[in-house]
Amino acid sequence: MSASELLRQSMQNLRVQPETKSTEPLLVALKFPSRPHQLEFSYPPRHRHTQFYGFWIDQQWLIKLGKNFHDPEDDLDPPEERDFWLRGFQHICWAVRIDPLTVEICLQPKQDGAPPEHVNANGEMFVLSVFSDNEADYPVIPFQEQVDYLANIFGRKPQWWVGIWPRNDFE
Q1: In sequence order, which residues have a C-beta less than 8 Å from that of residue 129 and are 6 or more positions away?
Q2: How far apart are alpha carbons 42 and 60 in whole angstroms?
Q3: CB burial class (10 A; 0-12, 13-18, 19+) of residue 57?
Q4: Is 9 a residue whose pLDDT tops 70?
Q5: Quick one: pLDDT at residue 1?
Q6: In whole angstroms, what is the distance from residue 92 CA to residue 98 CA?
Q7: Distance CA 58, CA 10 (A)
Q8: Phi and psi dihedrals of 131, rounded to 5?
Q9: What DSSP letter does each residue of 72-118 carry, written as one string?
């Protein structure tokens, strides 16, 4: 076997393939128009809890998304579900470029909430929040195109969700 064939064979052996393949589509980075539009929304009436504008999110969907991304250290330290969850969340942050994009624990509304399988026994679920009604967040409101991108991914419109923590706990 020639040196070039040996080198080619060793390079093929070095290629790392992810152990788990997900059927979830990979998200591509949002392409901004030259003139992005301001988000069209209105604040809800003030509540004693912080309210978050965003989408209910399935933790298993985030984990499946995160399994699409292989880290070179995975062979030394196999990732756990929380690592895949974080990779999925980081990929969404990268794709949509909303800062800060957060995951919040919110209460299930009486109408138009998450499906029952995504709500725990206390009536709580995870929400991907693009901003909140907290006065400190007012300068950080995403563009309409960013929220539309997420709405397209999740197949639903964003809405206001009531967080589980009263405002007075952190203000």
Answers
A1: 52, 53, 54, 101, 102, 103, 104, 161
A2: 31
A3: buried
A4: no
A5: 56
A6: 9
A7: 41
A8: -175, 175
A9: GGGGTS---HHHHHHHHHHHHHHHH--TT-EEEEEEPPSSS---GGG
Amino acid found at 23: T
Inter-CA distances, 146 with 40, 84, 156, Å: 12, 23, 14
> What pLDDT digit, counting tens, does each position of 105-160 carry?
999 988 888 888 889 989 999 999 999 988 776 677 898 999 999 999 999 999 99
Q: Are 125 and 119 in contact (CB under 8 A)?
A: yes
Q: Phi/psi zone of residue 113: left (φ > 0), alpha (ψ -120 to 50 degrees), beta?
A: beta
Token digits of residue 107? 């209460």
**Rounded (10°) angle between helices 81-96 and 59-66:** 90
Q: What is the 3-state secondary structure (H, E, C) of 31-46?
A: CCCCCCCECCCCCCCC
- Per residue in 23-66, pLDDT (tens digit) is 445 577 777 677 878 888 888 898 899 999 999 999 999 999 98
Among candidate residues 78, 65, 75, the one with its CA nearest the CA of residue 128: 65
Q: Hunting for tokens 């969404």 — which residue is that?
A: 92
